[in-house]
Amino acid sequence: MNDCLSLNATAGRVAHLAHEKEEKRIQERRRHLVYLIAAFLREQGYSSTAESLFKEAQLSRDIHVCDNIDLETIILEYTDYHYAKYNKYPKLCKKIEVGNVAPNVNKRAERVSKIYSKQEDSRVTEECNNISKNKVAQKHTISTWNELNLGMTVTPIFPAESGDRVAIQVPMSDETFINNERLLKPIGDLYPLSSELKEIADVMSREIVQQNLNVHWDDVKGLKDCKMLLKEAILYPMKYPSLFNRRLGFCKGVLLYGPPGTGKTMLAKAVATKCQSTFFNITSSSVISKWRGDSEKYIRVLTDLAKHYAPTIIFIDEIDWTTTKNIDHTSSNSEPARRFRAELLARLDGLLSMEYTNVILLAATNVPWNIDIALLRRLEKRIFVDLPDETSRLEILQSYVREDLYNSPEILKLAEETEGYSCADLKLLCKEAWISQLRPIWASLEAKTISVNNIQNDGLINAINYIVLAKTKVKPITKHMNVQYIEWHKEFGFSK
Questions:
Q1: CA nearest 95: which of 210, 196, 208, 218?
Q2: CATH topology for 196-323+335-384?
Q3: Is 342 helix (H, G, I), strand (E, B) or coil?
Q4: Cα–Cα distance, 380 to 244 (Å, whole number)
Q5: What's the pLDDT tens digit per position in 6-55?
Q6: Helical (H) or strand (E) element with 360
Q7: What CA–CA distance (Å, rounded) separates 319 from 301?
Q8: Is 390-477 the same fold as 196-323+335-384?
Q9: Minimal CA–CA distance to 494: which of 236, 230, 271?
Q10: Dmax over Cα atoms in the chain, in whole Å?
Q11: Is 157 exposed, middle or buried (0-12, 13-18, 19+ CB in 10 A)?
C-alpha cells in the first residue's frame, strides 16, 4: 500500500512539474509576443508608443527580437496556413459595437490593478506625463526643422492625474518629399479594417503621383494664356484660400481640350509640380471594372481619399472615355456605363458633392464635342490648348538645336513654314533630324573606323538642314482638324 502511495505521489509531482513547465512556456510565449509588438511599433515609427509599452510591461532593455523573426512574418505564415487548410484567408479584425468594448477593457484593467500597486501606477503616470510635455515641446521643433513624421497621434497608456487623456497630434505635411517621393499620411480610420472599401482604398492610393514630376511653367513653351488661366483656376485658390468664400468660390472643374500633342498633359504635370498637392492620375483601368457595382465603389473611394488628402487634384486624361454622347444625343447605353456616369456626376455635383472641399477635377480630352453635357457643365472652366503659334514653334525648335543656331535665318524661316504642326509634331521633326545627323556616325562605327569613346555628343542638332530634310518626311496630323476645335471653342470654350 505504501508503494502505491509513493507511486501516486511521484505521479502527482511529475504532473505538477509538467503543469508548471507548461505555464512557464505560456508566460514566456506571451512575454516574447510583447517584445515582438514593441519591435514592430519601433519599425513602424511609433517610438513613443513603444516606449510606453516598455514602461508598462516592464520589458528588459537587454533583450531584442532575433533577426530571423518578426510579427509580420508570423501573421503571414498563419494566413498562408489558414488558406491552405480552409481555402480562405482568416479575418484578423472585426468591427464591434461600442458597448461591447467596455467589458474586455474592464477585465484587463482589473488584472493590471492586481499586478501593479498604486505607487507604481502613479510613478508610470508621472513618467508618461513628462513624455507628453516633452512631445508637446517638440511640436514646434518638428514644424521648424520640417523633420520627418508619420502623421500619427500618440496617446499615453495611463490617464493623467486629472482623468483626462492627453493626445499629442503630430501633423504631417503633404509637401514632404524624401528621395524625390511624396510621403502620404496614413488612411487611418477612414474605413473599417478588412472591409472591401479599405482594400479599394489601398488600390486607389497607388494612383497618387508620389514622385516630384519637376515640370515647371517655363518647360511648357508658349501657351501663356493657358498657363495664366490654370494659375487663376487652380494655383491661386490653393495658394491664397482666404480670398475665396462659399458664395464666390473657386471653380471645381477644369477641362483642357485641343488637338493631340499640344501640351495638355505637360500643363497638368506643371500644375502638379507647382501646387505641391496630392495628385491623382486616373485612367480607365483605375476605375472601370467588369463586376457589377465595383466602378461606383471606386468613384466613392476616390472622392473620399481626395477629401482625406486635400488639397487634391484629380487628373483624368482623355476624360471622354468616362461619359460620352452618342449621335442621338443620349448617354452611353450600357448599364455599367450608366451607373458609373450617375455615381461620377453625383460625386462631382450633388448631395455628396465636393463643393466645399479643397478638391479640384482637372480633365483633358482631344474630342470635347463627345463629352456628356451634364459632365461638361461640371467642368466650369474649359481652356482651349491650341496649336503653337510662330513664336512658340521657334522656342520649341531652339530647344533642340545648338545655341549658335538660335537666330539663324534658316530656323526663323522654318518656324514660319511649320504652321499647323503641333508640339508633338515638332518634337518628332527634331527626332528625325537627329537620326539623319547620326547616320554617318553609324556607318563609321559599323565599319570600325572610329570608336564610340572618340565621339563627342552634346545631344543637340548642329545644322538646320537636317531639320529641313526631316520636314519632307514628317507631316502634321492635326492641321486640318483645328477648324473643328476653333468652332467648338467659340461655342463652349473659355477665353482670357
A1: 196
A2: Rossmann fold (3.40.50)
A3: helix
A4: 16
A5: 666 677 777 777 877 887 788 788 888 888 888 888 888 888 888 888 88
A6: strand 359-365
A7: 19
A8: no
A9: 230
A10: 124
A11: middle
**All three cell numbers of 190:** 477612414
Which triple of cell numbers denotes residue 31? 512575454
pTM confidence score: 0.62
Task: Say which DSSP state 229 is in.
Answer: H
Cα–Cα distance, 340 to 298 (Å, whole number): 9
Q: How is residue 459 written as a grid cell?
A: 545631344
Element at 270 (helix H, strand E): helix 264-275
Distance CA 51, CA 132 (A): 12
- The residue extents of the domains of the chain are 21-86, 196-323+335-384, 390-477
Lookup: cell for 335 = 448599364
**In which residue ranges of the chain is pLDDT below 70?**
1-9, 97-185, 188-189, 193, 322-338, 350-356, 495-496
Residue 422 near residue 262, CB atoms below 8 Å: yes
Q: Is 313 in a helix, a strand, or coil?
A: strand
Best CATH choice for the domain 390-477 from the list 1.10.8.60, 1.10.10.10, 3.30.390.30, 1.10.600.10? 1.10.8.60
* Cell representation of residue 344: 461620377
| CA 256 – CA 364 distance, rounded (Å) | 5
Residues 6+ apart with CB under 8 A from 451: none
Q: Could you give the count of Cα atoms lying within 13 Å of 112 in the half-sphere of its Cβ?
A: 15
Closest listed residue to residue 297, CA positions, set 372, 196, 209, 219: 196
Residue 271 CB coordination number (10 Å): 27
